[in-house]
UniProtKB/TrEMBL annotation:
PANTHER family: CYSTATHIONINE BETA-SYNTHASE
SUPFAM superfamilies linked to this entry: Tryptophan synthase beta subunit-like PLP-dependent enzymes
Positions in coiled-coil regions: none
Superkingdom classification of source: Bacteria
Keywords: Pyridoxal phosphate, Transferase
Annotated Gene3D superfamilies: 3.40.50.1100
Annotated organism of origin: Hyphococcus aureus
Transferase as UniProt keyword: yes
Protein name: Cysteine synthase A
Every Tryptophan synthase beta chain-like PALP domain range: 13-310
EC annotation from Swiss-Prot or TrEMBL: 2.5.1.47
Keyword Transferase in record: yes
Length: 337
């Protein structure tokens, strides 16, 4: 590509093609090269801009989304931010259903970008009032009442999500490592990132080891590792953890799963702040812990890639709030007090 072809033409061209960076401490600790894909550099500041763009482009192609239509989604926040910015750039309105428990920072970002927010109680998926079901019903109603119709993004079970990662994130990691990647791991929210990247990497080399890194309170670890519908513990992370095999995870080539503790996740995050100049969100911490575990399993000299999903600023009131951490009995570094 020439320099002029590479120049972004619109905001949408800023999505994807993120840099990949070497994580110093994690690499030194394992004798491996541990790489993090800097997804916080997307315009909506998270990995979920990719799912948003993939889902919207697919809905347009299928004719489901008409000019001036409404996009409806249930989201922990980041997908909502992605859908809202992509929607604004392409002339769509967005209505976002979010559990009340999600961080204020994400809700503020959604409002600033022009989303209409509907906050609902955080109840399990089996409850018909769960945010996912609520958003599906709202989309069905709006499809009838809105002059230009409405679509439900359905990030969990719409495979346009993982397809976009298989077409972009995975091939980018392959190119950026010159094909020298031995393992990949990340946490699961919808499973779109893990499934899509794993599909792309295994297509190119079936020996790349792919692993789900799962926080407490999620069932992905036991579902993948033991085929059992079980969980234990909990986590203060947001946007990750899942109670079922979503359509995005169905038949995905995942070799193994790890359970990662919040205290390990926080130690990794706090070291990144003081030693590497990176302030990242909880899922990035879970992912790096998983990458360290995978690197130790593979042995020195290997290369493991993971995802740096979003900035820590989105969780200033939680992960980086001493009062919140102390109340939960979690490690609080001196510099934060
Ligand atoms: N990290 C963060 C911060 C997220 O918001 C999400 C998605 N909700 C994920 C990770 C998980 O990504 P995916 O949905 O592709 O599994």
């Amino acid at each position: 590509m020439t320099a002029s072809q590479n120049t972004p033409k619109t905001m949408l061209d800023l999505i994807g093609d993120t840099p990949i960076i070497k994580l110093k401490r994690a690499s030194e600790e394992t004798g491996c090269t541990i790489l993090g894909k800097a997804e916080f550099l997307n315009p909506g500041q998270s990995v979920k801009d990719r799912a948003a763009l993939g889902i919207i482009r697919d809905a347009e192609k299928r004719g489901a989304l008409k000019p001036g239509g409404v996009i409806v989604e249930g989201t922990a926040g980041n997908t909502g931010i992605g859908l809202t910015i992509v929607g604004a750039a392409l002339g769509y309105k967005t209505k976002i259903v979010i559990p009340r428990t999600q961080s204020e920072e994400k809700k503020i970002a959604l409002r600033l970008h022009g989303a209409e927010l509907i906050e609902v109680d955080a109840v399990p998926y089996a409850n018909p009032n769960n945010y996912v079901h609520y958003s599906r019903r709202l989309a069905e109603e709006l499809a009838q009442s809105e002059p230009n119709g409405a679509v439900w993004a359905n990030q969990f079970d719409n495979v346009a999500n993982r397809d976009f990662h298989a077409q972009t994130t995975g091939p980018e990691i392959w190119e950026q490592t010159g094909g020298k990647v031995d393992g990949f791991t990340c946490a699961v929210g919808t499973g779109g990132t893990l499934a899509g990247v794993s599909m792309a990497l295994k297509d190119r080399n079936k020996n790349v080891r792919t692993v789900a890194s799962d926080p407490g309170g999620s069932k992905i670890f036991s579902l993948i590792k033991y085929g059992k519908d079980e969980t234990e513990g909990g986590s203060i992370t947001e946007g990750i953890g899942q109670g079922r095999i979503t359509a995005n995870l169905e038949d995905a080539p995942i070799d193994d799963a790890y359970r990662i503790d919040d205290s390990d996740m926080l130690n990794v995050l706090f070291n990144l702040v003081t030693e590497e100049g990176l302030c990242l969100g909880g899922s990035s911490g879970i992912n790096i812990c998983g990458a360290i575990k995978l690197a130790k399993e593979l042995g020195p000299g290997h290369t493991v890639a993971t995802i740096l999903c979003d900035y820590g600023h989105r969780y200033a009131s939680k992960l980086y709030n001493p009062a919140f951490l102390q109340e939960k009995g979690l490690p609080t570094p001196g510099w934060l007090r």
